[in-house]
Design goal:
The structure is a homodimer of 575-residue chains. Chain A is of the alpha+beta class and 575 residues long. Chain A is built from 15 helices and 23 strands.
Chain lengths: 575, 575
């Protein structure tokens, strides 16, 4: 932890910055995250009037004259102060004639200058003071003073810095900025629009630098990365942000295992030193395997989940399955004599029973939940029940999902296409149309495209998808066939990319890691809003500044747009 | 230089990536930029099938088996190939029965795999082949293969990486991402709008993270930086981009000299090793001094400009001044006897003449250009003439502006306010309303605000403003007085910032460096478009993808906007 645990306990409403020249005798600080994770401690007092941070002083500074700048954390009469900055706290004693009753040491103040005053804070900055998230977001600049936000944002900065060192300095990647004012992509219904000064012409804020990074490969910049700002307009969704950040990577002449090794090394190198080290390589499972085993393509592999359920839990799980999925669940309780205590026992043959016991490696006292139905649907239900069981058991105090454990998993061999939701006879890309088919399945594109697997890979951490990528199609003809013939997309909007592939595009592939989600998991934060300095609310609002806001009509004019209020269309019809 | 100079000379239309397993005997490469500037050479062949880059091989590799991936740069029959990647070129010879007639060495190919084919390129990638910029931008992915674009983008990545090391690892700055979907700022007429899904409500793409970085200081994140994407909609302007990047910095408890030392150290640390080192500290001049001396607030200080003019040049300069500024210029030629050969000689007293000679430190053969008028206007004209004279002299072969010379200058003590252009009785901020007044001039705010100087500072390099910043106002009352009383702004839109200052804002200040312009000057590029991977044209278009583009009406609906074509308003009036 970056701060002493008692720091946040000591926060007070009184908070004004002050500059002090003191003779330090006593000081206390904690900076282990920095000490252990970097080659040298950065110089926090260069270029400014202070000589030390509040948290830096030790008995080794005894006798030195120091200048400190900070906020008054606590004040008793005019004799005793606790001064605070991001780095910690220090006690300051203003000289009195009488002997100080407490402490073995004293600090002699020479001069003090009040730099600013502070109004009564809207909430006390203490961990145990419950605040609504709305209040925290409204006064974000005060919330940022909390121990947890300081820790989260500083850890994020350091982790990204180490990723850059790994990519740039160790492996020759080039950090390249790509535009965020771009053209809308086919089917890009979730893209924000930006009106231009040309009537009826719009830019679009892209969901990722996908096209640009592939074009960079064509351009011979063969190891690209970017900490890329991306945009997605999904309306109101909890724990999503309209703008988010991804570690965006692309390489030429690489295959799936190359990207996987790169990412394993990246996470190992950048992992915070106050956590257990990352063990590589990460295990890999195919999409078919994870679905059959865990009932999801992003399983939490920290736990197996086979024990501890009570009989009344089973009832609640059966109800959950019936209520949420309209699906029957049959529990099987295994006795010492391996008999089944279950309503299903009568409908199953002895040989089937033994085969199931063997397949599931069940042991005495195990509970097995059985369901029947279409494979994907049944697996998915059981996957949800597994998490439901975990929730249940954790309320009983069984630690299944150890918060200090980070369990990574690669999921590979996804299907290349899925049936379209609105018309299941047509195909859509399972991920995006630039994903290369699995080398063994290319022939299926021309016969049974639904069965073709892709060279897409997901990285899963503790049940969350934290990254995904693929080897891309580098052959223009194959790309055209998939876009035009299989997906029935209008290729005109992608003509620049198809043309680029025609001019000697190298084989290439890449990946994007969701930085906000990753840092959220690493810091154990309940929401990605806790690892972003100024997040939007789940409705996409900035509660501090009242964003988005209305705009006077004369400022819309240069962009040739008018607001059509929902009532307008009614008015129009009436008209 | 990163590439051998002959690399770009050798580019050919034929260009298909190929993977080769060869027995290398001869290779050639140049990677001095990396070798000299980084602690170690990054590993360019990790995670991929190649064992070496094309430019890496030396005679020390003799006898090793290597795998190369690259583009065919040149091919003669089926006996001889030049293989290319970003790193350089290597010769490959396909074994023949007959003895090779050239070279002391040979390379034995074991296997070769053709990875992709390449259509005839729209232009040959050779330095001496003239291409219009429009063609280069249309096929940007091919233009990126050129020596110069590879050099520019790789240098940019390395320079930014070193800036990050300096700020993060050496000086404890925290890299914090701030939102780009924000609220429009008062008077922010140049801000792009982003319609939200709430009728009539818009986000705005901010011109800089100014408000956020000040709020971070209030939040105790006392050393912030960000390589920040910024947006400015200025319509069509040459050499401006609708999105651009700045190195954005803010610190608490700092003064002007602190920021200046920080930036001097930053540039010195990150300066490319193939250039002359940066000498610090940079000289400082006040705004009044630079205007009087150079006639501009961003002087090119590489040259003094006092000699070499011919009589016919003077005529052309007088015409330039008359045509462009409607202003009379009087040239004075100094003879050996210090007499003036000038029409003005008759109208000036001997004592004045001697005083002028003394003040200007003129010498024999000097030419002095005199003009009269309002101080700022006259200075500004003379400043423009100085550059005009430099242009003239350089066409004569006099090297005044050495391209290898980097001449930095701090300009300080700017005025805090300027008269508004549209109503000169009212004031507007010379820079922005958060700039702190000069400590000696605070009393002037209440008496003669026009005369108050600010704590703003600009960093000038070779006649270009490459950065600017200020110490900010941290007192809420002073900020309110300046916004409401002096600038007559609507403070409601900034209420969150004013409120934040009330909660114990520390003294703080910062700066922003224009990264695109800086890299443009460092690389000696003619345009900032040459240091951006995918720039917009001067009309704000992406010529490769045809951006901005029209959007079907149904995609505008969720945003409650309609396009009002210029003809619509006429139609409305008719209606």
């Amino acid at each position: 932890m970056y701060f002493p645990s008692w720091l946040s306990q000591l926060y007070r409403g009184l908070s004004r910055p002050i500059r002090r020249t003191t003779q330090p005798i006593w000081g206390s600080l904690y900076r282990s995250l920095l000490q252990s994770s970097q080659r040298r401690i950065p110089e926090f007092s260069s270029f400014v009037v202070r000589t030390n941070t509040c948290g830096e002083l030790r008995s080794s500074h005894l006798g030195q004259e120091v200048t400190l700048c900070g906020w008054i954390q606590y004040r008793r009469q005019n004799t005793f102060l606790v001064l605070r900055d991001f780095d910690g706290l220090v006690q300051v004693i203003i000289p009195q004639d009488e002997k100080m009753p407490t402490g073995e040491i004293e600090i002699k103040v020479k001069t003090a200058e009040l730099l600013n005053a502070c109004k009564k804070l809207p909430f006390e900055i203490k961990n145990f003071v419950k605040k609504t998230e709305a209040l925290r977001l409204q006064y974000r600049y005060l919330d940022l003073r909390s121990f947890q936000m300081q820790y989260n944002l500083r850890l994020r900065s350091q982790m990204v810095m180490k990723m850059r060192e790994y990519l740039c300095n160790l492996h020759g990647f080039v950090d390249i900025e790509t535009p965020t004012l771009f053209k809308r992509t086919p089917g890009g219904a979730k893209e924000f629009l930006v009106p231009s000064r040309e009537p009826g012409k719009f830019y679009s804020l892209p969901q990722s630098p996908q096209q640009f990074k592939q074009l960079l490969m064509v351009g011979g910049l063969d190891r690209y990365f970017q900490v890329a700002r991306c945009y997605r307009d999904e309306g109101s969704r909890p724990d999503r942000q309209p703008e988010f950040t991804q570690i965006d990577i692309e390489m030429s002449f690489v295959d799936q295992t190359g990207i996987q090794s790169l990412i394993e090394g990246l996470l190992q190198y950048s992992w915070p030193n106050d956590k257990d080290p990352v063990v590589v390589p990460f295990p890999t499972m195919t999409f078919a395997e994870v679905l059959a085993t865990y009932g999801t393509d992003k399983p939490d592999t920290r736990f197996g989940m086979k024990k501890y359920l009570k009989r009344k839990d089973i009832e609640s799980i059966r109800n959950f399955a019936a209520d949420h999925f309209n699906q029957e669940i049959l529990p099987v309780f295994l006795n010492a004599n391996r008999n089944w205590n279950s309503p299903v026992a009568n409908f199953i043959m002895e040989s089937q029973r033994l085969e199931l016991i063997r397949l599931m490696e069940t042991q005495e006292e195990d509970v097995v939940l059985l369901t029947a139905g279409e494979h994907n649907k049944a697996c998915s239900l059981l996957g949800k029940l597994r998490l439901e069981c975990a929730d249940l058991l954790e309320t009983r105090g069984v630690v299944l999902r150890d918060p200090t454990l980070f369990s990574f998993l690669w999921v590979v061999d996804f299907p290349l296409f899925l049936p379209k939701e609105e018309n299941p006879r047509e195909l859509e890309s399972a991920h995006h149309p630039f994903t290369a088919p699995h080398p063994s399945d290319i022939h299926l594109l021309y016969t049974e495209p639904k069965k073709a697997r892709s060279q897409h890979y997901d990285l899963v951490l503790n049940g969350n998808e934290i990254g995904g990528g693929s080897i891309r199609i580098h052959n223009a003809e194959l790309q055209r066939y998939i876009l035009a013939t299989l997906l029935k997309e209008d290729v005109k909007m992608l003509s620049h990319l198809l043309q680029a592939l025609d001019y000697g595009a190298p084989p290439h592939g890449g990946i994007a890691l969701g930085l906000d989600r990753l840092i959220c998991l690493v810091t154990g934060s309940p929401s990605i809003r806790d690892v972003i300095a100024f997040p939007k609310s789940f409705r996409g609002h900035d509660l501090m500044s009242n964003t988005p806001d209305s705009v006077p009509p004369e400022e819309l004019k240069p962009y040739h747009i008018r607001v059509s209020k929902p009532t307008d269309s009614k008015a129009e019809r009436a008209h």
